[in-house]
């Protein structure tokens, strides 16, 4: 079993959770866990893309942070109009990371 936490919600958010709970016929706690999981995944992707855009990490590292494939992150970067920054140095970094990955 996971950790129990309590959170204050605005009336609007609580009403929306109630609506989703009824619409999807799920307990509010299930809806909250699903939303948190989705939000964390999106936040990790946003962070990875921003760090990549700033040149702080390689494409490979961005895909690892976001926990998606290299091909998927390239697709997302294209969708978000982020220019690929890929040259010989990035290729070396990515090959080294690949060798070190489990």
Kindly state the number of beta strands: 0
- Structural class from helices and strands? mainly alpha
Major sheet: none
How many distinct domains? 1
Task: State the low-pLDDT regions, or none.
Answer: none
Helix content: 55-70%
Beta-strand proportion = under 5%
Give the SSE string: HHHHH
Radius of gyration: 19 Å
Overall geometry comes to: elongated
Q: Helical region count?
A: 5
Measure the end-to-end span: 28 Å
Average pLDDT reading: 91
Care to describe what's here?
It is a single chain. It contains 5 helices and no strands. With 102 residues, the protein is mostly helical. It has one domain (11-100). Helix 2 packs antiparallel against helix 3 and helix 3 crosses helix 4. It starts with 10 loop residues before the first helix and ends with a helix.
State the main characteristics.
102 residues; mainly alpha; 5 helices
Blueprint (SSEs and pairs):
Blueprint: H1 11-24, H2 28-53, H3 59-66, H4 70-79, H5 88-100
Helix pairs in contact: 2-3, 3-4
In short:
This protein has helices at residues 11-24, 28-53, 59-66, 70-79, 88-100.
């Amino acid at each position: 079993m996971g950790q129990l936490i309590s959170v204050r919600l605005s009336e609007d958010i609580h009403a929306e959770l109630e609506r989703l709970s009824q619409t999807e016929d799920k307990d509010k706690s299930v809806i909250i866990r699903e939303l948190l999981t989705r939000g964390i995944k999106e936040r990790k992707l946003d962070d990875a893309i921003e760090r990549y855009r700033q040149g702080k990490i390689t494409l490979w590292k961005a895909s690892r942070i976001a926990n998606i494939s290299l091909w998927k992150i390239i697709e997302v970067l294209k969708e978000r109009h982020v220019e690929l920054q890929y040259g010989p140095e990035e290729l070396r970094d990515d090959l080294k990371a690949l060798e070190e990955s489990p």
